[in-house]
Write a sequence for this structure.
């Protein structure tokens, strides 16, 4: 988003003032070098080559002012985009888990910033943008299966995490 023009330095105006100043100084120097010609005659020369040279220089100064203005607007808009990106990054990083999270060794609940013991899912959901969904892994599905009509094998997990067939 480009910045508002009220905050930009008037580079176009500076270019016009430089062009006008150049024109006047050139006329004054010509008056000093050529003694029999008045300043008014040198300000608006009758020589077409002199008028052409001053006009081109005048337009170059104005063009410089326009170019400087556009470059300043581009730089300013890039700075604003960088500020926006830095703000978004800071906002995104503020929703991450950092540091030590105290967890109960028995029930696996975690202590939040207020000192309350809550489920790990609740803590993560409160401090990040993550969401949890429920499901069963393959081992738990076999272990907790109660479907006797399909003749599914019942398995029991030992303390090492290995599956063992349960006798019916």
């Amino acid at each position: 988003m480009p910045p508002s023009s009220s905050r930009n330095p008037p580079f176009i105006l500076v270019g016009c003032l430089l062009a006008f100043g150049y024109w006047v100084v050139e006329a004054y120097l010509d008056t000093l070098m050529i003694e029999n010609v008045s300043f008014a005659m040198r300000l608006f020369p009758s020589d077409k080559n002199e008028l052409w040279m001053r006009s081109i220089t005048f337009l170059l100064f104005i063009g410089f002012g326009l170019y400087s203005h556009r470059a300043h607007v581009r730089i300013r808009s890039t700075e604003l985009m960088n500020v926006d990106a830095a703000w978004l990054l800071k906002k995104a990083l503020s929703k991450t888990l950092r540091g030590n999270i105290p967890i109960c060794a028995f029930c696996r609940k975690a202590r939040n910033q207020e000192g309350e013991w809550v489920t790990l899912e609740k803590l993560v959901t409160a401090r990040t943008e993550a969401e949890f969904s429920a499901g069963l892994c393959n081992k738990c599905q076999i272990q907790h299966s109660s479907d006797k009509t399909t003749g599914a094998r019942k398995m029991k997990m030992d303390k090492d995490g290995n599956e063992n067939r349960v006798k019916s």
